[in-house]
Amino acid sequence: LGGWRISGKWTSLNFNRTLRLLMSQYGHFPFFRAYLGPHPASPHTPVIQIDQPEFDVPLKQDQEQKIYAQIFREYLTYLNQLGTLLGGDPSKVQEHSSLSISITSRLFQFLRPLEQRRAQGKLFQMVTIDQLKEMAPAIDWLSCLQATFTPMSLSPSQSLVVHDVEYLKNMSQLVEEMLLKQRDFLQSHMILGLVVTLSPALDSQFQEARRKLSQKLRELTEQPPMPARPRWMKCVEETGTFFEPTLAALFVREAFGPSTRSAAMKLFTAIRDALITRLRNLPWMNEETQNMAQDKVAQLQVEMGASEWALKPELARQEYNDIQLGSSFLQSVLSCVRSLRARIVQSFLQPHPQHRWKVSPWDVNAYYSVSDHVVVFPAGLLQPPFFHPGYPRAVNFGAAGSIMAHELLHIFYQLLLPGGCLACDNHALQEAHLCLKRHYAAFPLPSRTSFNDSLTFLENAADVGGLAIALQAYSKRLLRHHGKTVLPSLDLSPQQIFFRSYAQVMCRKPSPQDSHDTHSPPHLRVHGPLSSTPAFARYFRCARGALLNPSSRCQLW
């Protein structure tokens, strides 16, 4: 990469050569992101996407100037530590780190919020590599993208999806300025960013510096402190990421056998039937919309466990000849990163008529794909404590069942958006909207916890509706199947077990991604739906007017 002036060893190399190496060999994208994603007009056709960069600092467009400055001060301290750990002269480290912060700040100011781009109808733009070269000439787009997405064969006429053209134009101008006047500082900025990206694979001094920065930034942004993650957890996650083709088949064979799959499908069928029944009785839907909604549910595809593609025998036997594991942990990680990128590109180039899963089989995150009209429940979700064929039905319906219902309601998100259902009773729908927002706003928030009710509204509606649908399905099952449905060690009725099971899987500690989460904080995901369900207050004998037994409730679903 040519080194850097901080350590006194620096060879002024071609800027685009360095950028090309950072992107293709290290997976580091200092000025923009480039990745493969579905074509906007054809979801099963892959296309290279050029997007805004992901900044390492938690900046927001509407941040107070004082907080903004404090965040940058902490980040400057962190960069100084990195430069010193790498043997740099302290005075030079301070100067180059400050310039790196300045570059980051200017790039951040070029960003346009998603809401602004959506309002202007400019979420993305189809351009060729040649056209992008004219718009942002500082970057040798063809050579950088060709190196990153080998073995794809790219040409100047290759179409790309660009998410923010104006950002790229401004970014290009900044790079050209730096190349004319401060080329060595631009090099330092790229190298510092690379070290930040690689810090999890470096020694404990780098990891400790990173941990302290994260702690300070969470304090400044008034987020609760994060508990330390044990090292084994990161090792398991990275092994799963790098060797998923082999591990997927092994995991599913071990954890999601035919009996588990059959029991999970029965649960899903009961939840789906309860949703269809509920759709027939929604006061804000007319008969035509109800019929349309029922048809959408009937046509829905469901995939459980793992994708058929992931379970192909040849993938399980993959030998990973391109991965070199040696005495250097860093070099081993980099070898795995390059191998993974090559496999991702290769998989996108192969015909893939079915839905392409967005999660690993051991993940616990279910999702609904709008483009393929398919709902996905990975095998990791259909494990304890969410689900087990031998659990009492109350446990399975309360945990996995409510999650299944939540995902099914994603089918109808469009109806809840302004103007999304012209044939609906929009007055009743708007009243239900406002009611639910007021309901969630009434809950006290723990210290250092915040949420945006406009951002979380759709997920809140799905949480409340999902619990109600799962309870309806479970109540119907109780009428048809009698027998032992309680847990011997707990003095709880079947219905109480149902609600306890729901609360147990929703209640958790906050995660680092919570600031970008469209879900409410964990305690609201428990209290909001439970307090919206009259049966909960009845079975737990909550006093009228108590937090979980309000005097009035809302119903969207």
UniProtKB/TrEMBL annotation:
Superkingdom assignment: Eukaryota
GO molecular function: metal ion binding; metalloendopeptidase activity
Record's keyword annotation contains Secreted: no
UniProt region (Disordered), positions on chain: 509-528
GO biological process: proteolysis
UniProt domain Peptidase M13 N-terminal: residue ranges: 7-305
Known cofactor(s): Zn(2+)
Chain ranges of the Peptidase M13 C-terminal domain: 365-556
Keywords: Hydrolase, Metal-binding, Metalloprotease, Protease, Zinc
InterPro entries named among the record's database cross-references: MetalloPept_cat_dom_sf (IPR024079), Peptidase_M13 (IPR000718), Peptidase_M13_C (IPR018497), Peptidase_M13_dom_2 (IPR042089), Peptidase_M13_N (IPR008753)
Pfam families assigned to the protein according to its UniProt record, in alphabetical order: Peptidase_M13, Peptidase_M13_N
Protein name: Kell blood group glycoprotein
Organism annotation: Homo sapiens
Lineage, top ranks: Eukaryota, Metazoa, Chordata, Craniata, Vertebrata
Gene from which the chain derives: KEL
